[in-house]
Amino acid sequence: MMSGTAFMFPGQGAYLESVFTDLGMHRREVREVFDEVDGALDGGFGPALSRLFVNAPSLQALLADDPDIAQLALYGTAVAINTILANEGVRPSVLIGHSLGEIAALVAAQALSVGDGAIIVARRNEALRAAAPQGGMLALNAGVPRVSALIDAVDDPGLAVAVVNSLRQVVVSGRTSALEVVADVAHRVGIATAPVGAPYPFHNPLLADAAVLFESSIRSIRRRPLRSRVYSPILGRYYADGDDLPQLLAGHLTRKVDFVSALQYLYGAGVDRFIECGARKALTGIVDMTLPNVTALATVVKGVPPVQSLLGVAHGADQTAAPRTALSTASTFVPPPIPVAAAPVDRGRVLAELAGLYAEAVEYPVDVFTEDADLEGDLGIDSLKQTELMSQVAAKFGLPLSPDDFRVGEHGTLSRIADLIVANGGSSASVAAVRAPDGATFDAEPAGSPVVVAPVDRGRVLAELAGLYAEAVEYPVDVFTEDADLEGDLGIDSLKQTELMSQVAAKFGLPLSPDDFRVGEHGTLSRIADLIVANGGPRRRVGVS
Questions:
Q1: pLDDT (tens digit, 9 = 90+) per residue, 257-274?
Q2: Are 18 and 107 in contact (CB under 8 A)?
Q3: Which of 174, 224, 271, 432 has the largest count of CB atoms under 10 Å?
Q4: Are 414 and 354 in contact (CB under 8 A)?
Q5: Which value, to the nearest 10 degrees, does the dihedral of the CA atoms of residues 260, 149, 11, 206 take?
Protein backbone atom coordinates (compact mmCIF):
# COMPACT_ATOMS: atom_id res chain seq x y z
CA MET A 1 0.00 0.00 0.00
CA MET A 2 1.25 3.46 -0.86
CA SER A 3 0.97 5.39 2.38
CA GLY A 4 -0.31 8.93 2.02
CA THR A 5 -1.86 8.48 -1.43
CA ALA A 6 -5.47 9.36 -2.26
CA PHE A 7 -7.33 8.40 -5.41
CA MET A 8 -9.81 11.11 -6.41
CA PHE A 9 -12.96 10.37 -8.43
CA PRO A 10 -14.34 13.45 -10.24
CA GLY A 11 -17.93 14.30 -11.03
CA GLN A 12 -19.21 16.64 -13.73
CA GLY A 13 -17.09 17.36 -16.81
CA ALA A 14 -14.50 14.58 -16.40
CA TYR A 15 -14.91 13.19 -19.92
CA LEU A 16 -12.55 12.97 -22.89
CA GLU A 17 -13.10 11.27 -26.21
CA SER A 18 -9.57 9.82 -26.07
CA VAL A 19 -10.66 7.41 -23.32
CA PHE A 20 -12.68 5.60 -26.00
CA THR A 21 -10.68 6.35 -29.14
CA ASP A 22 -7.21 5.68 -27.70
CA LEU A 23 -7.09 4.28 -24.16
CA GLY A 24 -9.82 1.76 -24.97
CA MET A 25 -7.75 0.42 -27.86
CA HIS A 26 -4.70 -0.23 -25.68
CA ARG A 27 -6.14 -1.27 -22.34
CA ARG A 28 -8.69 -4.06 -22.11
CA GLU A 29 -9.93 -2.75 -18.74
CA VAL A 30 -11.76 0.15 -20.42
CA ARG A 31 -13.79 -2.10 -22.70
CA GLU A 32 -14.40 -4.60 -19.91
CA VAL A 33 -15.78 -1.95 -17.55
CA PHE A 34 -18.12 -0.52 -20.17
CA ASP A 35 -19.22 -4.00 -21.26
CA GLU A 36 -20.12 -4.69 -17.62
CA VAL A 37 -22.03 -1.41 -17.48
CA ASP A 38 -23.96 -2.29 -20.64
CA GLY A 39 -24.63 -5.77 -19.33
CA ALA A 40 -26.07 -4.46 -16.08
CA LEU A 41 -28.29 -1.93 -17.83
CA ASP A 42 -29.17 -4.40 -20.60
CA GLY A 43 -30.70 -1.82 -22.91
CA GLY A 44 -33.23 -0.69 -20.32
CA PHE A 45 -31.67 2.71 -19.77
CA GLY A 46 -31.07 4.02 -23.29
CA PRO A 47 -28.42 3.29 -25.92
CA ALA A 48 -25.51 1.03 -25.02
CA LEU A 49 -22.33 2.83 -24.00
CA SER A 50 -20.33 0.63 -26.36
CA ARG A 51 -21.33 3.05 -29.12
CA LEU A 52 -18.87 5.54 -27.64
CA PHE A 53 -16.01 3.32 -28.84
CA VAL A 54 -17.24 3.76 -32.41
CA ASN A 55 -18.20 7.42 -32.36
CA ALA A 56 -17.17 9.32 -29.23
CA PRO A 57 -18.80 12.78 -29.27
CA SER A 58 -17.42 15.81 -27.45
CA LEU A 59 -18.52 16.49 -23.90
CA GLN A 60 -20.56 19.48 -25.05
CA ALA A 61 -22.38 17.37 -27.67
CA LEU A 62 -23.02 14.57 -25.19
CA LEU A 63 -24.44 16.92 -22.57
CA ALA A 64 -26.69 18.54 -25.17
CA ASP A 65 -27.89 15.34 -26.83
CA ASP A 66 -27.86 12.72 -24.07
CA PRO A 67 -26.96 13.92 -20.55
CA ASP A 68 -27.85 10.52 -19.07
CA ILE A 69 -25.24 8.78 -21.21
CA ALA A 70 -22.79 11.53 -20.21
CA GLN A 71 -23.27 10.69 -16.51
CA LEU A 72 -22.70 6.99 -17.18
CA ALA A 73 -19.63 7.77 -19.28
CA LEU A 74 -18.17 9.84 -16.42
CA TYR A 75 -18.79 6.99 -14.00
CA GLY A 76 -17.36 4.31 -16.32
CA THR A 77 -14.26 6.38 -17.08
CA ALA A 78 -13.43 6.80 -13.40
CA VAL A 79 -13.94 3.11 -12.65
CA ALA A 80 -11.85 2.05 -15.68
CA ILE A 81 -8.91 4.31 -14.78
CA ASN A 82 -8.97 3.07 -11.19
CA THR A 83 -8.95 -0.53 -12.48
CA ILE A 84 -5.94 0.14 -14.71
CA LEU A 85 -4.01 1.73 -11.83
CA ALA A 86 -4.89 -1.21 -9.56
CA ASN A 87 -3.72 -3.68 -12.20
CA GLU A 88 -0.45 -1.74 -12.45
CA GLY A 89 0.08 -2.20 -8.71
CA VAL A 90 -0.89 1.25 -7.44
CA ARG A 91 -2.67 1.00 -4.09
CA PRO A 92 -4.03 4.15 -2.43
CA SER A 93 -4.52 4.62 1.28
CA VAL A 94 -7.87 6.38 0.82
CA LEU A 95 -10.47 7.06 -1.88
CA ILE A 96 -12.39 10.32 -2.21
CA GLY A 97 -15.18 11.18 -4.64
CA HIS A 98 -16.48 14.55 -5.78
CA SER A 99 -20.28 14.57 -6.16
CA LEU A 100 -21.17 11.83 -8.70
CA GLY A 101 -17.63 10.52 -8.19
CA GLU A 102 -18.57 9.11 -4.77
CA ILE A 103 -20.42 6.28 -6.52
CA ALA A 104 -17.27 5.35 -8.45
CA ALA A 105 -15.23 5.59 -5.24
CA LEU A 106 -17.55 3.12 -3.51
CA VAL A 107 -17.19 0.75 -6.48
CA ALA A 108 -13.40 1.08 -6.30
CA ALA A 109 -13.67 0.15 -2.60
CA GLN A 110 -15.70 -2.94 -3.67
CA ALA A 111 -18.73 -1.92 -1.62
CA LEU A 112 -20.64 -2.11 -4.93
CA SER A 113 -20.05 -4.07 -8.13
CA VAL A 114 -19.31 -2.20 -11.35
CA GLY A 115 -22.74 -3.19 -12.69
CA ASP A 116 -24.59 -2.15 -9.54
CA GLY A 117 -22.80 1.18 -9.53
CA ALA A 118 -23.99 1.72 -13.11
CA ILE A 119 -27.56 0.87 -12.12
CA ILE A 120 -27.35 3.42 -9.29
CA VAL A 121 -26.19 6.10 -11.74
CA ALA A 122 -28.94 5.17 -14.20
CA ARG A 123 -31.67 5.24 -11.55
CA ARG A 124 -30.33 8.52 -10.29
CA ASN A 125 -30.79 9.84 -13.82
CA GLU A 126 -34.35 8.47 -13.94
CA ALA A 127 -35.30 10.12 -10.64
CA LEU A 128 -33.87 13.44 -11.79
CA ARG A 129 -35.74 13.31 -15.09
CA ALA A 130 -38.98 12.57 -13.27
CA ALA A 131 -38.81 15.05 -10.40
CA ALA A 132 -35.98 17.59 -10.76
CA PRO A 133 -36.81 21.18 -11.75
CA GLN A 134 -34.96 22.88 -14.59
CA GLY A 135 -31.79 24.49 -13.41
CA GLY A 136 -28.04 24.26 -13.32
CA MET A 137 -24.86 25.30 -11.56
CA LEU A 138 -22.58 28.35 -11.64
CA ALA A 139 -18.98 28.57 -10.39
CA LEU A 140 -17.80 31.81 -8.77
CA ASN A 141 -14.25 32.90 -7.96
CA ALA A 142 -14.98 33.92 -4.38
CA GLY A 143 -15.18 32.40 -0.93
CA VAL A 144 -18.22 31.16 0.95
CA PRO A 145 -18.89 34.36 2.97
CA ARG A 146 -18.94 36.55 -0.14
CA VAL A 147 -20.98 34.09 -2.20
CA SER A 148 -23.48 33.61 0.64
CA ALA A 149 -23.91 37.37 0.89
CA LEU A 150 -24.48 37.53 -2.86
CA ILE A 151 -27.13 34.79 -2.65
CA ASP A 152 -28.84 36.69 0.17
CA ALA A 153 -28.86 39.81 -2.00
CA VAL A 154 -30.49 37.96 -4.91
CA ASP A 155 -33.08 36.59 -2.46
CA ASP A 156 -34.27 33.54 -4.41
CA PRO A 157 -35.24 30.60 -2.15
CA GLY A 158 -34.05 28.08 -4.74
CA LEU A 159 -30.41 29.22 -4.65
CA ALA A 160 -27.87 27.31 -2.58
CA VAL A 161 -24.13 26.96 -2.08
CA ALA A 162 -23.71 23.56 -3.71
CA VAL A 163 -19.96 22.92 -3.77
CA VAL A 164 -17.02 24.48 -1.95
CA ASN A 165 -14.06 23.61 -4.15
CA SER A 166 -11.46 25.89 -2.58
CA LEU A 167 -11.17 28.90 -0.32
CA ARG A 168 -11.78 31.07 -3.38
CA GLN A 169 -14.04 28.96 -5.60
CA VAL A 170 -17.65 28.15 -4.79
CA VAL A 171 -20.36 26.61 -6.97
CA VAL A 172 -23.95 27.77 -6.62
CA SER A 173 -26.95 25.81 -7.88
CA GLY A 174 -30.52 26.86 -8.56
CA ARG A 175 -33.09 27.58 -11.22
CA THR A 176 -31.76 28.92 -14.50
CA SER A 177 -33.38 32.33 -14.14
CA ALA A 178 -31.96 32.80 -10.63
CA LEU A 179 -28.47 31.80 -11.75
CA GLU A 180 -28.63 34.42 -14.48
CA VAL A 181 -29.30 37.05 -11.83
CA VAL A 182 -26.42 35.72 -9.69
CA ALA A 183 -24.06 35.93 -12.69
CA ASP A 184 -25.15 39.51 -13.40
CA VAL A 185 -24.73 40.64 -9.78
CA ALA A 186 -21.38 38.87 -9.51
CA HIS A 187 -20.15 40.65 -12.62
CA ARG A 188 -21.18 44.00 -11.17
CA VAL A 189 -19.17 43.43 -8.00
CA GLY A 190 -16.12 42.04 -9.78
CA ILE A 191 -16.52 38.29 -9.21
CA ALA A 192 -15.64 36.08 -12.18
CA THR A 193 -18.17 33.34 -12.97
CA ALA A 194 -18.51 30.37 -15.29
CA PRO A 195 -21.37 27.94 -15.92
CA VAL A 196 -20.82 24.32 -14.89
CA GLY A 197 -21.81 21.64 -17.40
CA ALA A 198 -24.51 20.13 -15.19
CA PRO A 199 -28.06 19.35 -16.35
CA TYR A 200 -29.70 19.90 -12.91
CA PRO A 201 -29.29 22.07 -9.77
CA PHE A 202 -27.30 19.43 -7.88
CA HIS A 203 -26.68 19.59 -4.11
CA ASN A 204 -29.73 21.71 -3.56
CA PRO A 205 -32.98 21.18 -1.58
CA LEU A 206 -34.79 21.70 -4.93
CA LEU A 207 -33.96 18.03 -5.61
CA ALA A 208 -35.72 16.70 -2.49
CA ASP A 209 -38.49 14.97 -4.47
CA ALA A 210 -35.99 13.41 -6.84
CA ALA A 211 -33.99 12.17 -3.82
CA VAL A 212 -37.05 10.34 -2.45
CA LEU A 213 -37.61 8.58 -5.77
CA PHE A 214 -33.95 7.75 -6.10
CA GLU A 215 -33.68 6.22 -2.64
CA SER A 216 -36.67 3.93 -3.15
CA SER A 217 -35.38 2.79 -6.55
CA ILE A 218 -32.03 1.52 -5.21
CA ARG A 219 -33.23 -0.13 -1.98
CA SER A 220 -32.83 -3.63 -3.43
CA ILE A 221 -29.21 -3.20 -4.52
CA ARG A 222 -26.84 -5.34 -2.49
CA ARG A 223 -23.88 -3.68 -0.82
CA ARG A 224 -20.73 -5.47 0.27
CA PRO A 225 -18.09 -4.77 2.94
CA LEU A 226 -15.72 -1.92 2.18
CA ARG A 227 -12.25 -3.10 1.18
CA SER A 228 -10.74 0.40 1.21
CA ARG A 229 -11.38 3.58 3.15
CA VAL A 230 -13.68 6.04 1.37
CA TYR A 231 -13.90 9.63 2.61
CA SER A 232 -17.03 11.58 1.72
CA PRO A 233 -16.83 15.38 1.25
CA ILE A 234 -20.62 15.40 1.56
CA LEU A 235 -20.81 13.50 4.85
CA GLY A 236 -17.59 14.96 6.21
CA ARG A 237 -16.45 11.50 7.33
CA TYR A 238 -15.46 8.04 6.14
CA TYR A 239 -18.13 5.62 4.96
CA ALA A 240 -18.80 2.71 7.34
CA ASP A 241 -20.09 -0.80 6.66
CA GLY A 242 -23.16 -0.08 8.78
CA ASP A 243 -24.21 2.94 6.68
CA ASP A 244 -27.57 2.99 4.93
CA LEU A 245 -26.14 3.53 1.45
CA PRO A 246 -29.45 4.16 -0.38
CA GLN A 247 -30.31 6.90 2.10
CA LEU A 248 -26.86 8.48 1.96
CA LEU A 249 -26.58 8.35 -1.84
CA ALA A 250 -30.02 9.92 -2.18
CA GLY A 251 -28.95 12.62 0.27
CA HIS A 252 -26.11 13.54 -2.08
CA LEU A 253 -28.63 15.25 -4.33
CA THR A 254 -29.61 17.81 -1.70
CA ARG A 255 -26.49 18.18 0.47
CA LYS A 256 -23.49 20.45 -0.07
CA VAL A 257 -20.10 19.12 -1.20
CA ASP A 258 -17.36 20.60 1.00
CA PHE A 259 -14.37 19.42 -1.01
CA VAL A 260 -11.91 21.93 0.43
CA SER A 261 -12.53 20.73 4.00
CA ALA A 262 -12.16 17.12 2.86
CA LEU A 263 -8.80 17.88 1.26
CA GLN A 264 -7.61 19.71 4.36
CA TYR A 265 -8.71 16.80 6.56
CA LEU A 266 -6.87 14.22 4.44
CA TYR A 267 -3.78 16.41 4.29
CA GLY A 268 -3.82 16.65 8.08
CA ALA A 269 -4.15 12.86 8.22
CA GLY A 270 -0.93 12.46 6.23
CA VAL A 271 -2.09 12.32 2.61
CA ASP A 272 0.36 14.21 0.41
CA ARG A 273 -0.15 12.58 -3.00
CA PHE A 274 -3.43 12.90 -4.90
CA ILE A 275 -4.11 10.97 -8.12
CA GLU A 276 -7.17 11.82 -10.21
CA CYS A 277 -9.06 8.80 -11.57
CA GLY A 278 -10.84 10.59 -14.38
CA ALA A 279 -10.34 12.52 -17.59
CA ARG A 280 -9.14 16.14 -17.59
CA LYS A 281 -7.78 17.92 -14.52
CA ALA A 282 -10.88 18.93 -12.60
CA LEU A 283 -9.68 17.84 -9.16
CA THR A 284 -5.90 18.19 -9.43
CA GLY A 285 -6.44 21.89 -10.09
CA ILE A 286 -8.49 22.16 -6.89
CA VAL A 287 -5.77 20.40 -4.91
CA ASP A 288 -3.18 22.83 -6.28
CA MET A 289 -5.34 25.77 -5.17
CA THR A 290 -5.89 24.35 -1.71
CA LEU A 291 -2.85 22.49 -0.40
CA PRO A 292 0.83 23.46 -0.30
CA ASN A 293 3.65 21.01 -0.81
CA VAL A 294 1.65 18.08 -2.14
CA THR A 295 1.77 16.14 -5.39
CA ALA A 296 -1.39 16.21 -7.51
CA LEU A 297 -1.38 14.06 -10.65
CA ALA A 298 -3.88 13.82 -13.49
CA THR A 299 -4.01 10.51 -15.34
CA VAL A 300 -5.76 11.41 -18.62
CA VAL A 301 -5.44 14.92 -20.01
CA LYS A 302 -6.24 16.62 -23.29
CA GLY A 303 -3.47 16.56 -25.86
CA VAL A 304 -1.40 13.77 -24.27
CA PRO A 305 -1.69 10.09 -25.30
CA PRO A 306 -3.71 8.65 -22.39
CA VAL A 307 -1.71 5.42 -22.13
CA GLN A 308 1.47 7.46 -21.79
CA SER A 309 0.12 9.81 -19.13
CA LEU A 310 -1.69 7.10 -17.14
CA LEU A 311 1.24 4.68 -17.08
CA GLY A 312 3.56 7.57 -16.28
CA VAL A 313 1.56 8.15 -13.11
CA ALA A 314 1.35 4.42 -12.34
CA HIS A 315 5.08 3.85 -12.65
CA GLY A 316 6.25 7.08 -11.08
CA ALA A 317 7.11 9.10 -14.17
CA ASP A 318 8.63 12.28 -12.81
CA GLN A 319 5.75 14.63 -13.52
CA THR A 320 6.91 16.86 -10.68
CA ALA A 321 10.64 16.86 -11.38
CA ALA A 322 10.62 20.57 -12.18
CA PRO A 323 9.38 22.97 -9.52
CA ARG A 324 5.85 24.21 -10.13
CA THR A 325 7.22 27.68 -10.63
CA ALA A 326 9.38 26.65 -13.59
CA LEU A 327 8.19 26.57 -17.16
CA SER A 328 7.95 23.23 -18.92
CA THR A 329 10.82 23.61 -21.36
CA ALA A 330 14.03 25.59 -21.36
CA SER A 331 13.23 27.08 -24.74
CA THR A 332 10.30 29.04 -23.31
CA PHE A 333 11.82 30.03 -19.98
CA VAL A 334 12.41 33.75 -19.54
CA PRO A 335 14.40 34.63 -16.40
CA PRO A 336 12.69 37.14 -14.14
CA PRO A 337 13.67 40.80 -14.37
CA ILE A 338 16.60 41.84 -12.18
CA PRO A 339 16.27 45.02 -10.08
CA VAL A 340 18.93 47.58 -10.97
CA ALA A 341 17.89 50.73 -9.14
CA ALA A 342 15.60 50.85 -6.14
CA ALA A 343 13.87 53.75 -4.48
CA PRO A 344 13.78 53.86 -0.65
CA VAL A 345 11.17 51.49 0.72
CA ASP A 346 8.16 53.19 2.32
CA ARG A 347 7.29 50.85 5.23
CA GLY A 348 3.93 52.51 5.81
CA ARG A 349 2.96 51.90 2.21
CA VAL A 350 4.11 48.28 2.47
CA LEU A 351 1.90 47.78 5.55
CA ALA A 352 -1.07 49.32 3.76
CA GLU A 353 -0.58 47.06 0.74
CA LEU A 354 -0.22 44.00 2.97
CA ALA A 355 -3.41 44.88 4.83
CA GLY A 356 -5.28 45.23 1.54
CA LEU A 357 -3.95 41.94 0.21
CA TYR A 358 -4.84 39.98 3.37
CA ALA A 359 -8.25 41.65 3.72
CA GLU A 360 -9.18 40.74 0.16
CA ALA A 361 -7.93 37.16 0.51
CA VAL A 362 -9.87 36.31 3.67
CA GLU A 363 -12.71 38.79 3.12
CA TYR A 364 -12.27 40.68 6.41
CA PRO A 365 -12.54 44.46 6.81
CA VAL A 366 -9.16 45.99 6.06
CA ASP A 367 -9.07 47.93 9.33
CA VAL A 368 -8.75 44.74 11.42
CA PHE A 369 -5.31 44.22 9.89
CA THR A 370 -3.40 46.41 12.28
CA GLU A 371 0.36 46.25 12.34
CA ASP A 372 0.63 44.01 15.40
CA ALA A 373 -2.58 41.93 15.16
CA ASP A 374 -1.69 38.24 15.47
CA LEU A 375 -2.82 36.66 12.20
CA GLU A 376 -3.76 33.36 13.81
CA GLY A 377 -4.43 34.21 17.46
CA ASP A 378 -6.37 37.43 16.86
CA LEU A 379 -7.74 36.99 13.34
CA GLY A 380 -8.12 33.20 13.03
CA ILE A 381 -6.02 32.82 9.86
CA ASP A 382 -4.56 29.34 10.14
CA SER A 383 -1.01 28.42 9.17
CA LEU A 384 -2.12 26.74 5.93
CA LYS A 385 -3.79 29.94 4.74
CA GLN A 386 -0.85 32.06 5.91
CA THR A 387 1.55 29.93 3.89
CA GLU A 388 -0.68 30.25 0.83
CA LEU A 389 -0.85 34.03 1.29
CA MET A 390 2.91 34.23 1.64
CA SER A 391 3.29 32.97 -1.93
CA GLN A 392 1.25 35.99 -3.03
CA VAL A 393 3.33 38.30 -0.84
CA ALA A 394 6.56 36.89 -2.27
CA ALA A 395 5.33 37.46 -5.82
CA LYS A 396 3.97 40.94 -5.11
CA PHE A 397 7.01 42.28 -3.25
CA GLY A 398 9.76 40.41 -5.08
CA LEU A 399 10.93 38.38 -2.07
CA PRO A 400 13.62 35.80 -2.85
CA LEU A 401 12.17 33.20 -0.49
CA SER A 402 9.72 30.51 -1.53
CA PRO A 403 6.67 29.58 0.58
CA ASP A 404 8.64 26.51 1.71
CA ASP A 405 11.17 28.83 3.37
CA PHE A 406 8.46 30.76 5.20
CA ARG A 407 8.01 30.04 8.93
CA VAL A 408 4.56 31.05 10.13
CA GLY A 409 5.67 31.27 13.75
CA GLU A 410 8.33 33.85 12.88
CA HIS A 411 6.05 36.06 10.77
CA GLY A 412 2.72 36.05 12.55
CA THR A 413 1.96 39.77 12.18
CA LEU A 414 1.96 42.22 9.29
CA SER A 415 4.68 44.14 11.13
CA ARG A 416 7.07 41.19 10.91
CA ILE A 417 6.21 40.53 7.27
CA ALA A 418 6.76 44.22 6.46
CA ASP A 419 10.15 44.03 8.19
CA LEU A 420 11.04 41.07 5.98
CA ILE A 421 10.08 43.03 2.86
CA VAL A 422 12.01 46.13 3.95
CA ALA A 423 15.04 43.99 4.80
CA ASN A 424 14.97 42.65 1.26
CA GLY A 425 14.91 46.18 -0.09
CA GLY A 426 11.82 46.12 -2.24
CA SER A 427 8.10 46.44 -2.58
CA SER A 428 5.69 46.37 -5.46
CA ALA A 429 6.20 50.12 -5.84
CA SER A 430 9.86 50.44 -4.84
CA VAL A 431 11.72 49.41 -7.97
CA ALA A 432 12.70 52.36 -10.08
CA ALA A 433 13.70 50.30 -13.07
CA VAL A 434 14.36 46.64 -13.82
CA ARG A 435 16.48 45.10 -16.49
CA ALA A 436 15.24 42.26 -18.68
CA PRO A 437 17.59 39.46 -19.71
CA ASP A 438 18.14 40.94 -23.16
CA GLY A 439 19.40 44.23 -21.70
CA ALA A 440 16.18 46.19 -22.28
CA THR A 441 14.60 47.92 -19.29
CA PHE A 442 11.00 47.82 -18.16
CA ASP A 443 9.21 50.95 -17.12
CA ALA A 444 9.05 52.32 -13.63
CA GLU A 445 9.88 55.92 -14.55
CA PRO A 446 8.15 59.12 -13.49
CA ALA A 447 5.34 60.43 -15.67
CA GLY A 448 6.58 62.57 -18.50
CA SER A 449 9.82 60.67 -19.10
CA PRO A 450 10.65 60.09 -22.76
CA VAL A 451 9.55 56.66 -23.95
CA VAL A 452 11.07 54.51 -26.64
CA VAL A 453 9.02 51.34 -27.13
CA ALA A 454 10.79 48.32 -28.53
CA PRO A 455 9.02 46.45 -31.34
CA VAL A 456 6.88 43.59 -30.01
CA ASP A 457 8.16 40.12 -30.91
CA ARG A 458 4.90 38.20 -31.42
CA GLY A 459 6.73 34.87 -31.49
CA ARG A 460 8.24 35.54 -28.09
CA VAL A 461 4.85 36.60 -26.75
CA LEU A 462 3.36 33.29 -27.96
CA ALA A 463 6.20 31.32 -26.37
CA GLU A 464 5.73 33.12 -23.05
CA LEU A 465 1.97 32.57 -23.17
CA ALA A 466 2.46 28.85 -23.90
CA GLY A 467 4.83 28.58 -20.95
CA LEU A 468 2.46 30.44 -18.63
CA TYR A 469 -0.55 28.31 -19.58
CA ALA A 470 1.42 25.04 -19.52
CA GLU A 471 2.69 25.80 -16.01
CA ALA A 472 -0.76 26.79 -14.75
CA VAL A 473 -2.60 23.66 -15.95
CA GLU A 474 0.42 21.33 -15.95
CA TYR A 475 0.13 20.24 -19.57
CA PRO A 476 3.14 19.74 -21.86
CA VAL A 477 4.04 23.11 -23.35
CA ASP A 478 3.95 21.76 -26.90
CA VAL A 479 0.17 21.19 -26.81
CA PHE A 480 -0.27 24.98 -26.63
CA THR A 481 -0.07 25.63 -30.33
CA GLU A 482 -1.05 29.03 -31.66
CA ASP A 483 -4.53 28.00 -32.79
CA ALA A 484 -5.44 25.25 -30.29
CA ASP A 485 -8.85 26.01 -28.81
CA LEU A 486 -8.25 26.43 -25.09
CA GLU A 487 -11.59 24.95 -24.08
CA GLY A 488 -12.60 22.76 -27.02
CA ASP A 489 -9.18 21.21 -27.65
CA LEU A 490 -7.43 21.52 -24.29
CA GLY A 491 -10.33 21.37 -21.84
CA ILE A 492 -9.52 24.64 -20.01
CA ASP A 493 -12.90 25.90 -18.85
CA SER A 494 -13.97 29.52 -18.99
CA LEU A 495 -13.49 30.06 -15.25
CA LYS A 496 -9.87 28.93 -15.45
CA GLN A 497 -9.31 31.00 -18.59
CA THR A 498 -10.61 34.10 -16.81
CA GLU A 499 -8.31 33.39 -13.86
CA LEU A 500 -5.34 32.93 -16.23
CA MET A 501 -6.18 36.18 -18.00
CA SER A 502 -5.52 38.08 -14.79
CA GLN A 503 -1.98 36.66 -14.86
CA VAL A 504 -1.63 37.54 -18.54
CA ALA A 505 -2.81 41.11 -17.89
CA ALA A 506 -0.29 41.50 -15.06
CA LYS A 507 2.57 39.93 -17.02
CA PHE A 508 2.05 41.91 -20.24
CA GLY A 509 0.72 45.16 -18.83
CA LEU A 510 -2.73 44.92 -20.42
CA PRO A 511 -5.11 47.71 -19.39
CA LEU A 512 -8.13 45.40 -19.17
CA SER A 513 -9.35 43.72 -16.01
CA PRO A 514 -10.46 40.07 -15.99
CA ASP A 515 -14.08 41.25 -15.94
CA ASP A 516 -13.52 42.94 -19.31
CA PHE A 517 -12.15 39.73 -20.79
CA ARG A 518 -14.54 37.74 -22.97
CA VAL A 519 -13.50 34.10 -23.18
CA GLY A 520 -15.40 33.52 -26.41
CA GLU A 521 -13.42 36.25 -28.15
CA HIS A 522 -9.99 35.07 -26.97
CA GLY A 523 -10.17 31.29 -27.06
CA THR A 524 -6.72 30.68 -28.55
CA LEU A 525 -3.21 31.87 -27.75
CA SER A 526 -3.14 33.48 -31.17
CA ARG A 527 -6.01 35.81 -30.26
CA ILE A 528 -4.53 36.60 -26.85
CA ALA A 529 -1.17 37.35 -28.49
CA ASP A 530 -2.95 39.68 -30.94
CA LEU A 531 -4.49 41.50 -27.98
CA ILE A 532 -1.07 41.89 -26.35
CA VAL A 533 0.55 43.10 -29.58
CA ALA A 534 -2.30 45.54 -30.18
CA ASN A 535 -1.61 47.01 -26.75
CA GLY A 536 2.08 47.37 -27.52
CA GLY A 537 3.34 44.30 -25.67
CA PRO A 538 5.15 44.54 -22.35
CA ARG A 539 6.05 48.18 -21.68
CA ARG A 540 9.70 47.72 -22.54
CA ARG A 541 11.99 50.75 -22.75
CA VAL A 542 15.23 50.66 -24.67
CA GLY A 543 18.20 52.91 -24.04
CA VAL A 544 16.36 55.43 -21.89
CA SER A 545 18.39 56.76 -19.00
A1: 999 999 999 999 999 999
A2: no
A3: 174
A4: yes
A5: 130
